[in-house]
Every structure is written in C-alpha cells, then in structure tokens.
Amino acid sequence: MKSTFCGWMLSISLLALVGETVSLAPTSSIVVDTAPNDVRPYVLPKYKGDAIKLTSSQTIRFSITANSSGGAFSLLQHNGKVSGWLSARPHTHGLTHEHLYCTRGRCQLWGQKNATNASHEARVATPGDYGNIPPGSIHTFQLVDPDSQLTHVFHPAGFEKLFHVFSQGEHDTHGISSPYVPILDDPSPFGPMTPQEYNRLVSLDLYAAPEEEYIPRRDFVNGTAGEAQQPWHDGPNHPPNDPTTPYFVAKDWGPKYLNTDTGYKVIQPLATPTHTHRNFTMGTIIMSNKLANESVSTATLPHHFALQMEEGQLVFQVQGYDSVKLLHGDVAFVPAGVTFSYHATVPYTKFMYMNAGDRGLEYQLLRRSVPWEFPAYPTSPGFRANSTGSKFTQL
Q1: Which residue out of 78, 99, 139, 152 is catalytically annotated?
Q2: Which residue positions does the secretion signal occupy (predicted)?
Q3: Which of 117, 165, 273, 330 has the CA that lies 20 to 30 A from 306?
C-alpha cells in the first residue's frame, strides 16, 4: 500500500509541475490575504493566510500550498504555547521531505534514520535552528516555550492536506489575528491508535512509528541528545553528504559564505542539492543596507523561489508589480522565470530562502562568494572577494 500511494503522489506532483501555468496580473496587487489557488507572484503578510486550529490552542497557517506553488513545495507556520505533549505522533513519510525551522521561542526536535543501529538524535531548537528530515526518517516535535513558532517546509507540496483533515476548526486571520488561541486547557489530541486511523494517516503519507519501538529521548544536555555527539551551539555543525540521513544545524554554526557583488550578503545554506536529490534548497541570507551608489540585486531563476523574512526590512519588487517593503514574518513567492529585485533598507536584514531546484538564488550568489567565518559582514564598504576565493582585497 505504501509504494502504491507514494507512486500516486509522485505522479500527481510531477503532473502539477509540468502542467502548471503562471498567472501574471500586473494590474492587481502582489499583496494577498491568503495563498492563491494558482501559480502567481504574491506577498503574504505576517499572520495572514488560511489557518486552522491543530489543537485547542495550537494553530497552523498555510503560507505556500500545493496550489500556489504548482506542487513544488509548501510552507506552514505552526504557533502555540508550551505543551506537555508531542505535537505529532512519531512518524515517517514515504514521499515528503520535511524541513523544520524554529522561528520563535523553543521547539524540541527529534530525528532518526529508519535503519538498524541508527543514531537517535534530539535537539532543543531556538530561533534560527534547523532540522532536515528526509523521507523514511522517524521524527516528531514539541513546542516548549509560552510563545513558540515552528516553520514547516514540505517538498513536494501536498502534505499540508493532513492538517486540514485533522483540523479542529478555522482560526481567524482577518481580524486582530492572534498568533494562537490563549487557552489554558489544551490536552493532547492523541488517543490510542486504531487500525482505521493508521490507514487514514497512511493515505496522507504519514506512517506512525510503533509506540513500543520509538520513544522520543529527553536526556538533553545543553540542548542536545544523541549517540553521534555532534556539536550544538558550541562548535561547527557539518551536515552529512547523504540525502537519506536526518540532521540538525544550529543558528550561525553551519557553513557560511560572503558575496560582495552588490553590497554584502552572507549566505548560510541549510539544505543543499546534495541533501535533497537536487530538487530543493533552503538556507538564510544576511544583507547589508543599500548605499546610495549601489544598485539593487536582481534575479530570474529557473525554479520557483520563496522567502520568509527573519529580520530587518527588504524592498522587494516583482516584474509587473509595485515594490513592497517586507518585514519580519512576511512571505514572498516568485514563480520560475519571473524577474524580481531586492535590497535591504536597514543594516542586517535577513531572510530564509527556498528554491524548488538546484539552481536557485544561492546558486547564483555562491558562484562568486568565498568561505566566511562570521554571520556578519565587513564593517566598511568597498571590499571584494578576490579571484582565489580565499582572501579579500579593498578597492
């Protein structure tokens, strides 16, 4: 049943990607209240979008969906208060590759390759920490601060349907749009697993791990637990060169590169083509503010692109639309082949990027970048990476 379902889902995803049409409507606003039902450029402001209650207090917002991305990838924001229970049964996916990014508060993350003697890893994630969960990896997560947000990215898109199926009602995002429902009584939504529920979850690409075989470990020391004894906020984090092994990267402890084409950009890849069979990339970019004598950065990418703002302010303009100023929490989506420009208006502007392929925005920037040791750029303008890619020269 698993192989049949995975093959069906893959066929649907491929058909969506091949048959999609991009809707460009220059006379309409690029800013929307909900993710569109077709592929077009759009900006979704923070806390907007269709949303549901995952539990009495926890909410899920749908910022990028299978419809709005043509099946390429989806982006959800998961908000809630501290809970004494897991937000999902420990499980694996047959097709879906999941990426977890802590945006606010703290979230506990678990991941284990579904193989004999695989390392059972766990992390306490704080803002900027990341987890990569390939298909077949056992994983789960939990919100552990009074105000936490975990960003979920799925590729290919479609897994978000599960949250609609198990929704406990809509969450209003058209009014004051509270991050989540502030309610004290929010018990665990999970009861005993029945064969009917198991089969229903399988139809949605979720395979629950037997409770007697997988018990999430909680023996954290300095925010980490696992047999691999890898650094976590205390040393460089080196992702494995293996697309089947789950891994975690602490904020600013992964690889970093400096680009000096237009202003400064510090690129921190989190998921590279090596980790996703070359069909998705994800990471963060830190930018210096645009000076008067500098031009804006432009790009026309062969794959769908999206970003989620983390810090600062970004002026973002898509061909055919007026420019907009993006702030923390805003999401932007640009279809393949559509030109866009961007520049920061304040120092240290940061966004999380997503590309539905192996030649996204960071691919263009990294070709002219050098290894860099810091999540900060030089303090003076005019530095350029030299041709050797190992030092810097001043103009």
Answers
A1: 139
A2: 1-23
A3: 165
Q: Does residue 99 have an active-site annotation?
A: no
Range of the domain at 272: 256-372
Catalytic residue among 20, 97, 98, 171: 98
pLDDT tens, N- to C-terminus, the chain (395 residues): 344 334 434 333 433 343 444 555 555 799 999 999 999 999 999 999 999 999 999 999 999 999 999 999 999 999 999 999 999 999 999 999 999 999 999 999 999 999 999 999 999 999 999 999 999 999 999 999 999 999 999 999 999 999 999 999 999 998 888 999 999 988 888 888 999 999 999 999 999 999 888 999 999 999 999 988 899 999 999 999 999 999 999 999 999 999 999 999 999 999 999 999 999 999 999 999 999 999 999 999 999 999 999 999 999 999 999 999 999 999 999 999 999 999 999 999 999 999 999 999 999 999 999 999 999 999 999 888 754 444 433 32
CA-CA distance, 8 to 26, in Å (whole number)?
A: 36
Burial of 27 (0-12, 13-18, 19+ CB in 10 A): exposed
Task: Flag whether 18 is in a domain.
Answer: no
How would DSSP label each residue in 296-321? Answer: PEEE--SS-EEEEEEES-EEEEETTS
Tally of domains within the chain: 2
Full-model pTM = 0.91
Does residue 311 sit in the same domain as residue 345?
yes
Say if residue 265 is in the same domain as residue 313.
Answer: yes
Q: What type of residue is 205?
A: D
Domain membership of residue 57 (yes or no) is yes
- Statement to judge: residues 60 and 110 lie in one domain: yes
Q: What does DSSP say about strands 247-249 and 107-113: parallel, antiparallel, or unpaired?
A: unpaired
Catalytic hit among 20, 78, 93, 160 = 93
Q: Confirm whether 277 is a catalytic residue.
A: no
- 164 flagged as catalytic: no
Q: Is 97 a catalytic residue?
A: no
